[in-house]
Amino acid sequence: MENILTKYDWIKDLHLKGVEWMFIIPIFLMAADVITGYAASWKNHTIRSQKMRDGLIKKVGELVCISFGFIMFWATDIMAFVTSIGVYISFMELTSICENLDKLNFKLPEAITKRINNNMESVHKVEIVKEDTKEVKTLEPQNSDKNGENSDM
Questions:
Q1: Are residues 125 and 141 in contact, defined by beta-carbon separation less than 8 angstroms?
Q2: Is the dihedral of CA 91, 93, 95, 97 positive or negative?
């Protein structure tokens, strides 16, 4: 029986030292975000083509930012441009993946679930108080469609 480690020797050559990882990791995380977002929308029956289109356009913008970082690295030989952009986008994608996993009812640590913004209704409510009548009016978020469903992807 062939040793399983010799079959996958190429794995030993993978290490996070090269600048190319600042492109590979965000792209991998973007793909994971799209997959988990679509799965969450499918599960919750909230698939919206406009939301998906907006998300994919955002991903293209992120790729443009990463490409800009690579151009700056190529022009100046300063790794900070591509590294800072890659790390920022990676953290942003990880946060979005956690939000999607939460929507899929995947058990996440409480430290993460209390910081992600899946329960935006309470965050976006605005109360207007009229001083003369002491009337309080609560404005609900504007992110629901005609059927009253959430307009997530």
A1: yes
A2: negative
What pTM did the predictor assign? Answer: 0.67
Q: Which tokens in the block code for residue 97?
A: 């993946």
d(CA 127, CA 37): 31
Tell me how many degrees the CA angle 115-120-125 measures, rounded to the nearest 5: 125
76 burial (CB, 10 Å; 0-12 / 13-18 / 19+) is exposed
User: Would the CA dihedral through 12, 13, 16, 22 be positive or negative?
Assistant: negative
| Residue range 120-152, pLDDT digits in tens | 544 444 555 566 666 666 655 555 444 444 444
**Phi/psi of residue 24, each to 5°?**
-70, -45
* Cβ 132 vs Cβ 34: under 8 Å: no
User: For 27-57, what is each residue's pLDDT tens digit?
Assistant: 999 999 999 999 999 999 998 999 899 999 9
Residues making up the chain, counted from first to last: 153
